Amino acid sequence: MSRSYDLIVIGAGMAGVAAANMCASRGWSVGIVDALPYGGTCALRGCDPKKILRRGAEIIDSARLMRGKGITSDGLAISWADLMKHKHGFTDPVPARMEDTLRANGVDTLHGPARFTGKNNLEIEDAHHTARHFLIATGARPRTLGFPGDQHLVDSTDFLQLPELPQRILFVGGGFVSFEFAHIAARAGSAPTIIDRGPRPLKAFDPDLVHLLIARGAASGIELLRSTTITSIEKSEAGYQVTVDRSGRTETMVFDLIVHGAGRTPELTSLDLDSAGVAWDEHGVHVAPHLQSTTNPAVYAAGDSADTPGMPLTPVAVIEGKVAASNMLNATTKAPDYTGVPTAVFTIPELARVGMLEQEARDQGIDLEVRHHDTSSWYSNYRIGETTAAAKILIDRTTDRIVGAHLLGPDYAELINVLGLAMKLDLTTRQLKSVTAAYPTVGSDLGSML
Ligand SMILES: Cc1cc2nc3c(=O)[nH]c(=O)nc-3n(C[C@H](O)[C@H](O)[C@H](O)COP(=O)(O)OP(=O)(O)OC[C@H]3O[C@@H](n4cnc5c(N)ncnc54)[C@H](O)[C@@H]3O)c2cc1C
Ligand SMILES: NC(=O)c1ccc[n+]([C@@H]2O[C@H](COP(=O)([O-])OP(=O)(O)OC[C@H]3O[C@@H](n4cnc5c(N)ncnc54)[C@H](O)[C@@H]3O)[C@@H](O)[C@H]2O)c1
Where is the FAD/NAD(P)-binding domain (predicted)? Predict the structure, then answer.
């Protein structure tokens, strides 16, 4: 059946669903389509299932930290199959629940791969729809690495579905995916290795804190090889034989599983964007700051598939989905405000950031005061036996405002939200320090960090 809509959203992930619900609530006729079950990457193949698996790893690690301090952790282990069942208990109901909510809000839920056939025309399987507006919210996929044997790589989606965890695991790429998964795998009894092509992994994070995290990971059994690029994989009797270029030398190693953690690229190739006159490249759909296509005014883009200053993260996808919807509804040109959007790598302990890196702040000529503390001996960390924790808060001396904050420690991904809030509301550090936290909580460490 073919229909004419005010808006068709392509992609039922965080960005798409936020926009579809908002436009339907204002009386627009809205269709949303996905080629996969509804929910997108975050709920089904990313943030949420990943952090459920991490819970098992947290418990193992917490018990180990308390060895000799009243806890006997011998024999404590993760049952991977049971942990997976726990994960499915959350992920399995998501698609039906999400579709039910959309339909209850008046949104038509469509299925199948979507493809443009004109500036206002979209084909979904055999149905041809037209719309006044489109939102491209198709997310991202692992980028093609293109070396001999790359078909043997599994991606993050495969990893989160593994029926069992093998012993020798190689993670290709020293970014979010590899670090988070390696920290889970190490506590589940595997021996993970991460390779990164550059000298510095986790480049989006504070180098001093990354250095501490790498040492903590090494103590938990995670090997990191820097300046190492994978060049081929061959299947052999002993496992997958991996050849790497390590600072100019060729080396081979054998693994049971090789996981792609070497970056993601917008999912746009199957959309036939040229038929709609939509400009795009490997960074995403080309959009103006208010998220409208630079070449087809009927089209907007949001989330991982849009080329915007926002990082490819869930909160950014939600902000952009809502801003795109608001601009379509009201014919406005408001740009998203990314101020104070934090990010965290859910390693153990977790590494978090909001605002600028120290080097970025120095490059901008900000009169910077760096409040840098080793917090490993502070009460909150002593209590749980954590040995690695630090905070680095960057303050503009002339305004007393936080321009960046970097934290490594247990529960610090919660604490970074408070620093993000302070940045968003333009609070001075003096105002932030005037807030009283319940004691003893991790939040009550914030005053001393400042
Ligand atoms: C392993 C992993 C862990 C992550 N963890 C975190 C985290 O802890 N915190 C965080 O903030 N971010 C995390 N992210 C990033 C986060 O998941 C993404 O930034 C976010 O989900 C992007 O949302 P989106 O709406 O732009 O796209 P998506 O959620 O990816 O949704 C896009 C949808 O479009 C559909 N689609 C694509 N092409 C078509 C087509 N042609 N026709 C129809 N449908 C189509 C897809 O099937 C998909 O459902 C993680 C990512 C991964 C991979
Ligand atoms: N906690 C979170 O918020 C979270 C978790 C997972 C993923 N994500 C999102 O997903 C995106 C993709 O994550 P990712 O970890 O795949 O990518 P990433 O961009 O975080 O890291 C990729 C790393 O791989 C390295 N690399 C690239 N090609 C390589 C090669 N051939 N050999 C060796 N190293 C190579 C890069 O130098 C880089 O350090 C992230 O940018 C992030 O936005 C977020």
Answer: 5-321
Residue 189 marked as a ligand binder: no
Cα 384 to the chain's mean position, in Å?
Answer: 27
CATH tag, 349-448: 3.30.390.30
- Domain 3-142+265-330 coded CATH 3.50.50.60: yes
Return the domain boundaries, the chain: 3-142+265-330, 150-262, 349-448
Kindly report, residue by residue over 30-50, the tens digit of the pLDDT. 999 999 999 999 999 999 999
Place of tokens 């943030």: 47
pTM of the complete model: 0.98
As for the ipTM of the complex, it is 0.98
H helix or E strand, kind and range, residue 140: strand 140-142
Q: Can you say how many angstroms the Cα of residue 235 is from the centroid of all Cα atoms in its chain?
A: 31
CATH number of 150-262: 3.50.50.60
Q: Is 174 annotated for ligand binding?
A: yes
